[in-house]
Design brief:
Elements lengths: L1 H18 L10 H42 L13
Helix pairs in contact: 1-2
């Protein structure tokens, strides 16, 4: 049950990040928009880090592996460094 809560918190952290660009669509003052953006940012970060604490090192290792595979060098690609 605790793992399920961790996964829900992890997903919610990204949902909150997706809501930040939608703030200007509402009729709010500049102060209110800044407050909402700050609140959503803080809530998203807290949810993300607490979910990682709940889900543990194995989950963090899987995330790091997925991100490094996505942004890392593709197998079979040439070295991206230039010889000068």
């Amino acid at each position: 049950m605790l793992k399920l809560i961790g996964y829900i918190m992890f997903v919610m952290s990204f949902v909150l990040w997706l809501l930040v660009p939608a703030i200007p669509l509402f009729e709010l003052s500049a102060k209110q928009m800044a407050a909402w953006a700050t609140g959503l940012f803080i809530a998203a970060e807290v949810l993300f880090w607490v979910s990682l604490l709940i889900l543990g090192k194995e989950f963090w290792a899987r995330i790091k592996q997925s991100v490094s595979r996505f942004f890392g060098r593709r197998s079979g690609s040439e070295d991206s460094t230039l010889d000068v």
